[in-house]
Amino acid sequence: MTHVLADKMKKELSLLQPSDILKFDQETSSIPGIIKLTLGEPDFNTPEHIKEAGKKSIDANRSHYAPSAGTPGLRRAISRFLETKYKLRYNPDTQLLVTTGATEAIFASLTSIINPGDKILIPTPIFPLYIPIALLNGAEPVFMDTSDNGFVLSPEILAQALNKHGKAVKAIIFNFPTNPTGVTYRRSEIEALAGVLKKHDIFVICDEIYSELTYGEPHVSMAEYLPDQTILINGASKSHAMTGWRIGFLAGPEEVMRKMGTVHQFMITSATTMAQDAAQEAFENGMNDGTQMRAEYEKRRDFVYQKMTEMGFSCPKPEGAFYLFAKIPEGFPQKSIDFCVDLARNAKVAVIPGDSFGPGSAGRIRISYAASMDVLKEAMRRIEHYVTEKKQRSVQA
Ligand SMILES: Cc1ncc(COP(=O)(O)O)c(C=O)c1O
């Protein structure tokens, strides 16, 4: 009986696979002494003043439902944060929705705009979450491989895809600074892409969750150039080391946000009230909390980048987020899952197989350097030992 009912479930579910990243992370967790550079999770704790705001909120019995769009205080704080940091102007009363992490923002936005059969353009390699959500809603993902262009989508590839797929395209998804490559888009690149996108009547879903973690130029938002088309996704998870509080947000044109707000309401009613109070403190009085964390990530980036390239793993130097996307050198298993399993078993370091991130990812691995310098030093020492041993063995063979 259960089996028969399982067969009657939503047909798109058969297209979905469990997250490769979580699966690999769980599999390698059982190896004794393993160092995991797998998950995209800040190793810093939430800053004290934010924790205090959360505690005060609990003590003040802020344990009731919040307005579905988010508490007015948090929405005002987000609006000011976006204006101060990225020159974006959003009316806190009508253009912002507070979500349960960026994850819910992704789910609510795609669910609100997709009709079955719509095409969604996705530059790859990219954080994989958008793909199952698009599929679940009956959309067809159209991948644009950016690996030949330094992992940056060029206006030419974009224009080609838009011309080829025409009116069937409902939206394009961007994520920058990019998980898994660490690449980000410069002002001139955003300007050029916006020039192409402006001519098309499509949504531009822009996940800028790593916007506070850039190591060169400050972040430029796509919404600065395309305010009428962009659905902006961001949140407190990475900027303020608040992954467990689950606070994200959506920003966009008024009418779009009004309709999206109904989907968001049916999904979760409202984000957790005390977490919203803590996030208000983060965006209001901790606007620059990220600065110190960013400086620390930058040191780690420099260290890991130098070590990995010295060992023969080529990769773009990350300009944002906290990932390194490295090519497996010749002489090692080129299938990324095989390499990662071998590395986990023999070097006791877990990294994510590149294939999880779509076309352009083959033969690569993603290393998360959101770990302490001591952990990273030991991980690099182990990988170096593994690489040297393998090379010596292949010379002897
Ligand atoms: C690009 C990107 N978007 C969204 C998320 C999820 O963010 P949140 O924890 O706020 O749901 C992640 C998490 O790793 C991410 O890398």
SSE blueprint and pairings:
Blueprint: H1 2-7, H2 20-29, E1 35-36, H3 48-59, H4 72-86, E2 96-100, H5 101-113, E3 119-124, H6 130-136, E4 140-145, H7 155-165, E5 169-175, H8 187-197, E6 203-207, H9 222-225, E7 230-235, E8 247-251, H10 254-268, H11 273-285, H12 290-310, E9 323-327, H13 336-346, E10 349-350, E11 352-353, E12 364-368, H14 373-396
Parallel strand pairs: 1-10, 3-4, 3-5, 5-6, 6-7
Antiparallel strand pairs: 2-8, 7-8, 9-12, 11-12
Helix pairs in contact: 3-11, 4-11, 5-10, 12-14
Name the features.
44% helix, binds pyridoxal-5'-phosphate, transferase, three-stranded antiparallel sheet, Aspartate Aminotransferase, domain 2, 14 helices, Aspartate Aminotransferase, domain 1, 397 residues, seven-stranded mixed sheet, alpha/beta, 14% strand, 2 domains, pyridoxal phosphate
What features would you describe in this structure?
The protein starts with a helix and ends with a helix. The protein has helices spanning 2-7, 20-29, 48-59, 72-86, 101-113, 130-136, 155-165, 187-197, 222-225, 254-268, 273-285, 290-310, 336-346, 373-396, and strands spanning 35-36, 96-100, 119-124, 140-145, 169-175, 203-207, 230-235, 247-251, 323-327, 349-350, 352-353, 364-368. The chain contains 14 helices and 12 strands. Helix 12 (290-310) packs parallel to helix 14. The chain has 397 residues and is an alpha/beta fold. The chain is globular and about 70 Å long. It binds pyridoxal-5'-phosphate (PLP). Pyridoxal-5'-phosphate binds next to helix 5.
